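Duplicate of #3305? Posting structure anyway:
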């Protein structure tokens, strides 16, 4: 009986930040951008010739690749596109992590990495962050099957610079190194330029955060032709059309609107500074953030309890019940108004408990 069940895949999936159906919540739990996409991207969607949707999209989304290549100052052959950067990273794991040796990443990091390792049977080993939650590049020395590190790291929000990436690359000439730059625009540091120096460096990025287009699903990778051509081959062995025609049109308009992009980033960075300062004044420890979220704790207070309390006040933040960070909360930087509400409710919580 139920013999067929023994062949079903038994896997524990990644759990994203809760998406509530309520529209009156202050949603600071999924690192979404509080501002709308570029008006030019909205216009591109509104004026999109919907009747052309009967056709498949551009075979390899070259027009959007070209816009991204121009923005970063690389060639179109150095750009790969996918359905969100989760898709790009999952394909990269399949394309590059085929060694018997374990791949390496920090113990506290994006919790999708172990899920992909289990899905694709990739051995992995985690390297503990320091007591200050920084990544020590020396931990990534020695033979391995590959390295993946988000910069800024998530959920710690800490961003490293050129010296760190160069050290990592010097230690890892024998494997592919992926730097996940999902939040890099909020730190104004990117290691894309180093892909010209290191053929085994792949940098992934997304339109979901800094470009306010999480709903469209546009992710990309930048790297040497040697890496990008293998990624293309893996994608084309799985699903040829990962980027739809609407995303291509809106994506191009978004990349070209640098003025709106920079203004939005500036606004978020300013609110991040204000939120960090005010929380520190209240007694929180807040890590220096290079992302559109902050990571905070309060000695002697129960952060899980605060997270639950805020939820009852319709303020959603993120709590991870994981070793070492189970008394921290991750809070997405929202608008100034959302930040006012958040801070008011946090003060009520601290005052009342
Ligand atoms: N990398 C990191 C570190 C993230 O936090 C996220 C968002 N959950 C992603 C990649 C993927 O984002 P997306 O698929 O929307 O591009």
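Output from current build:
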């Amino acid at each position: 009986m139920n013999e067929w069940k023994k062949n079903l895949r038994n896997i524990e999936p990644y759990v994203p930040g809760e998406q509530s159906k309520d529209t009156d919540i202050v949603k600071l739990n999924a690192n979404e951008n509080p501002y709308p996409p570029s008006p030019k991207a909205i216009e591109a969607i509104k004026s999109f010739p919907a009747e052309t949707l009967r056709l498949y999209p551009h075979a390899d989304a070259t027009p959007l690749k070209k816009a991204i290549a121009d923005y970063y100052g690389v060639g179109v052959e150095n750009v790969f596109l996918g359905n969100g950067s989760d898709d790009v990273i999952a394909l990269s794991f399949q394309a590059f992590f085929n060694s018997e040796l374990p791949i390496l990443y920090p113990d506290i990091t994006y919790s999708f990495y172990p899920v992909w390792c289990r899905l694709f049977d990739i051995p992995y080993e985690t390297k503990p962050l320091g007591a200050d939650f920084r990544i020590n590049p020396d931990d990534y020395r020695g033979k391995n099957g590959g390295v993946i590190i988000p910069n800024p790291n998530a959920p710690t929000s800490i961003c490293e610079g050129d010296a760190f990436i160069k050290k990592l690359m010097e230690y890892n000439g024998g494997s592919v190194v992926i730097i996940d730059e999902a939040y890099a625009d909020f730190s104004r540091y990117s290691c894309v330029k180093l892909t010209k120096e290191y053929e085994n460096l792949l940098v992934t990025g997304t339109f979901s955060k800094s470009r306010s287009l999480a709903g469209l699903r546009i992710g990309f990778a930048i790297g040497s032709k040697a890496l990008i051509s293998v990624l293309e081959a893996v994608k084309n062995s799985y699903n040829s059309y990962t980027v739809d025609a609407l995303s291509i049109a809106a994506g191009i308009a978004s990349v070209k609107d640098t003025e709106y992009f920079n203004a939005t980033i500036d606004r978020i960075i300013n609110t991040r500074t204000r939120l960090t300062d005010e929380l520190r004044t209240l007694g929180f420890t807040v890590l220096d953030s290079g992302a559109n979220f902050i990571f905070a704790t309060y000695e002697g207070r129960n952060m899980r309890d605060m997270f639950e309390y805020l939820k009852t006040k319709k303020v959603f933040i993120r709590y991870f019940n994981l070793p070492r960070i189970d008394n921290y909360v991750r809070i997405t930087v929202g608008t100034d108004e959302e930040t006012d509400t958040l801070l008011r409710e946090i003060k009520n919580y601290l005052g009342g408990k």
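Confirmed duplicate; merging threads. The first helix runs from residue 39 to 46. The pocket of 4'-deoxy-4'-aminopyridoxal-5'-phosphate is lined by residues 84-86, 110, 150, 154, 180, 182, 206, 208, 214, 219 (CB under 6 Å).
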